[in-house]
Amino acid sequence: MKLEKAAKQLEALGNTTRLELYRVLVRAGDAGRPVGYLQEKLGIAASTLSHHLHRLILTGLVTQERQATTLICRANYPVMQDLLGFLADECCADAGCAGSSVEPEAAA
């Protein structure tokens, strides 16, 4: 994953309403949730919800599918896993340097 893509996704999740919206969709599983449910659950205006969904869709974190007259929103789990992997891929990669228990800043 490229740094710029991860930054855009994290930026989209950096808004409290979008983060709450995304968490609702992640909890919903593969079935997703209708837009009407999301609006009621979050207690926000349709236009506001549309704006926040648009930001999440642009980054690939959310998908939408029309089923008859209902618009279903889903968390895009492969994209979420890519982002989580990007954040964790190099976890502790530099921790074993030189076998010293002294932090580099403390040694200076």
From TrEMBL:
Keyword Transmembrane helix: no
GO function term, MF aspect, one: DNA-binding transcription factor activity
Domain of life, per lineage: Bacteria
UniProt-listed SMART domains: HTH_ARSR
Domain HTH arsR-type: residue ranges: 1-95
Record bears the keyword Lyase: no
Matching InterPro entries: ArsR-like_HTH, HTH_ArsR_DNA-bd_dom, Metal_resp_trans_reg, WH-like_DNA-bd_sf, WH_DNA-bd_sf
Alphabetical keyword list: DNA-binding, Transcription, Transcription regulation
CDD domains named in the record: HTH_ARSR (cd00090)
PANTHER family: ARSENICAL RESISTANCE OPERON REPRESSOR ARSR-RELATED
NCBIfam families noted in UniProt: HTH_metalloreg
UniProt-recorded name of the protein: Transcriptional regulator, ArsR family
Annotated source species: Mesorhizobium australicum
